[in-house]
């Protein structure tokens, strides 16, 4: 099963992906985590994307598509993946469909976590205070939210047209969101 957790930054995708990994043995493919690891390691890729992440902009489609492609054999061996923070543009979604089709696989479900903007801003302020992730600062977060609304929200009709989109209420506790996701997947 290949699942996309879809939603704006700080919607809770990472938290829910980790739970699904523990419960279902799937693997989590988070392009944000991969890019942060590249930056931390000081690799060539890390140096290239560092400023882009710091600004809150999207890195190029080419970079994230290559990162995902590298991990698809591992996902296949695990019986599927949870895509977290990928795809973020229609071009990425089309590339993902093509890469999976080449391997005889497909996206089975897309679960959209719905969280209103006021709740997102509250969450992000808390996460910034607790974890100090630089791109969670209010100005950069506004850029990230804008990138979501401009580039990523248009994916909703893309997956709706494929009949794969389900919605889960992303407000509330981690447990209640988990229940909503499980219901959406049932
Ligand atoms: P995230 O942890 O998913 O919020 O991602 C953190 C940052 O990494 C984003 O603000 C982007 O700069 C970059 N990033 C992560 N995933 C993608 C993607 N699929 N496409 C473009 N940029 C991405």
If you had to describe this structure to a student in words, what would you say it looks like?
This protein is α/β, with parallel strands linked by helices and 186 residues long. It has one domain: Rossmann fold, CATH 3.40.50. 61% of the residues lie in helices and 12% in strands. It has 9 helices and 5 strands; from the N terminus they run βαβαααβαβαααβα. The protein has helices at residues 13-24, 31-41, 44-55, 61-77, 90-102, 117-131, 138-152, 155-161, 174-185; strands at residues 3-6, 27-30, 81-84, 109-114, 165-169. The mean pLDDT is 94.
Helix content: 55-70%
| Shape-level CATH architecture | 3-Layer(aba) Sandwich
The CATH topology turns out to be Rossmann fold
Q: What is the number of strand segments?
A: 5
Task: Provide the domain count.
Answer: 1
Question: Keywords for this structure?
Answer:
186 residues, alpha/beta, Rossmann fold, 9 helices, binds adenosine monophosphate
Topology:
Blueprint: E1 3-6, H1 13-24, E2 27-30, H2 31-41, H3 44-55, H4 61-77, E3 81-84, H5 90-102, E4 109-114, H6 117-131, H7 138-152, H8 155-161, E5 165-169, H9 174-185
Parallel strand pairs: 1-3, 1-4, 2-3, 4-5
Helix pairs in contact: 2-3, 4-5
Q: Could you give a quick summary of the protein structure above?
A:
With 186 residues, the protein is α/β, with parallel strands linked by helices. The chain contains nine helices and five strands. The chain has a five-stranded parallel sheet with strand order 2-3-1-4-5, with helices on both faces.
């Amino acid at each position: 099963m290949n699942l996309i957790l879809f939603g704006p930054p700080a919607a809770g995708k990472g938290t829910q992906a980790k739970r699904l990994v523990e419960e279902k043995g799937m693997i989590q493919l988070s392009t944000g985590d991969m890019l942060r690891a590249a930056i931390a390691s000081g690799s060539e890729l890390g140096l290239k994307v560092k400023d882009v992440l710091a600004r809150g902009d999207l890195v190029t489609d080419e970079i994230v598509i290559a990162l995902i492609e590298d991990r698809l054999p591992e996902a296949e061996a695990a019986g599927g993946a949870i895509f977290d923070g990928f795809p973020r543009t229609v071009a990425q979604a089309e590339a993902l469909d093509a890469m999976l089709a080449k391997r005889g696989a497909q996206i089975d479900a897309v679960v959209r976590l719905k969280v209103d903007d006021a709740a997102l801003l509250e969450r992000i302020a808390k996460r910034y205070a607790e974890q100090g992730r630089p791109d969670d600062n209010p100005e950069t977060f506004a850029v990230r939210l804008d990138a979501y609304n401009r580039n990523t929200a248009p994916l909703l009709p893309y997956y709706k047209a494929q009949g794969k989109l389900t919605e889960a209420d992303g407000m509330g506790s981690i447990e209640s969101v988990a229940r909503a996701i499980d219901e959406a997947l049932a």
